[in-house]
Design brief:
Largest sheet: 10 strands, antiparallel
Number of strands: 15
Order of helices and strands: EEEEEEEHEEHHEEEHEHEHEH
Strand content: 15-25%
Number of helices: 7
């Protein structure tokens, strides 16, 4: 019989459709094409991108030339632009502002054919450190309220280029989805005087049935109310709300965590396309009553979602998601996947 499960942060309900139960072999997974010709992210094609914003590179090399490990450029087709003022105004009953923000691309490797899980730990650390460095820099701009870090791997996940990369977008408002999560965490804390994410970590570590992998500093598990087959949550065991406060030793642990979990997904699901999103706290500007409890009730984390099913009319019409794979079975399968 199908089962309804409730997300403890958002109050969102998920239908776990056991009658539609699917194993990895049941999904029609087509590996993504990896055409290299004309790729602007490859080493030697630096002139095909906007100017370099930041890079880990050979100290003897110059910006916008080869010999780099990680490279950050502005998105050629940005969602939001840095230049200009917000110019908030009312238009009759409506509100508008200019599309001010930042949209950057983090090119994770000069090698076109290396996916994130194939990178050595020290290279992954540089990618994760780049997220931190760029976040801290953009936080200095008083116009920005939120820094979103995400990765679209594959066409089905929204990527337009197959070369491994992630993105960072700074927005002038706190996104509604983030506010909902902040409100859910705050409500839980007010009721129980505990962080909901810390409670979930304790629950998962105690029972282990949904845990896929853990190391000294991080844990990865299939959420109790997973929306998608083989969805993963990755959380630091230490409580803190802001990704940019990650410590050097935690960067190494997070690199290990991503390498293991992405490799398990790749082997178990034939290199699935996926999205991952870093959920971090908004920028706290000095404003009375603005997100004053975040340090206590929020806990940054990563959502990792393989693209194995499609969202259709029922999901859009109700807000319910239908997951055909029981999270406990997905976790067990990934636990047993050798890397």
């Amino acid at each position: 019989m199908p089962e309804l499960r409730k997300d403890p942060v958002l109050g969102r309900w998920v239908i776990v459709s056991t009658e539609r139960g699917k194993r990895p072999s049941d999904f029609n997974i087509e590996p993504e094409a990896t055409e290299k010709k004309g790729c602007p992210f490859c080493e030697g094609s630096e002139d095909k991108t906007p100017p370099e914003i930041f890079a880990f590179r050979d100290p003897n090399s110059k910006p916008n030339t080869p010999n780099w490990e990680v490279r950050v450029v502005s998105n050629k087709f940005p969602v939001l632009r840095v230049e200009g003022d917000l110019e908030k105004q009312g238009v009759g009953m409506y509100d508008r502002m200019n599309g001010i923000g930042a949209h950057e691309v983090i090119i994770e490797t000069p090698d076109h054919f290396k996916k994130m899980e194939m990178l050595p730990i020290d290279s992954l650390v540089k990618v994760l450190e780049t997220y931190k460095i760029r976040s801290l820099d953009l936080m200095n701009d008083a116009r920005f309220r939120y820094i979103l870090i995400f990765k679209n791997e594959g066409i089905a996940a929204g990527a337009t280029l197959s070369h491994s990369h992630s993105q960072l977008i700074a927005t002038p408002v706190t996104p509604k989805r983030v506010k909902e999560e902040l409100d859910g965490a705050k409500e839980y804390f007010q009721y129980k005087d505990r962080c909901v994410f810390c409670d979930m970590i304790r629950e998962e570590m105690q029972h282990k049935i949904r845990v896929v992998y853990e190391n000294k500093d991080f844990i990865a598990y299939c959420p109790f109310a997973s929306r998608f087959p083989f969805e993963l949550s990755i959380l630091p065991k230490r409580h803190y709300p802001d990704y940019h406060n990650i410590q050097p030793n935690e960067l190494v642990s997070l690199a290990d965590m991503l390498k293991v979990t992405l490799t398990k997904l790749s082997k178990a699901l034939n290199k699935p396309q996926y999205n991952f999103i870093v959920h971090t706290a908004p920028v706290r500007r000095p404003r009375s009553g603005y997100w004053t409890t975040i340090d206590y009730d929020f806990h940054w984390h990563i959502e990792l979602m393989p693209r194995l099913t499609k969202v259709a009319g029922f999901e859009w019409g109700t807000g319910f998601y239908i997951n055909p794979t029981v999270p406990e079975e997905a976790a067990k399968f990934l636990q047993e996947t050798k890397i």
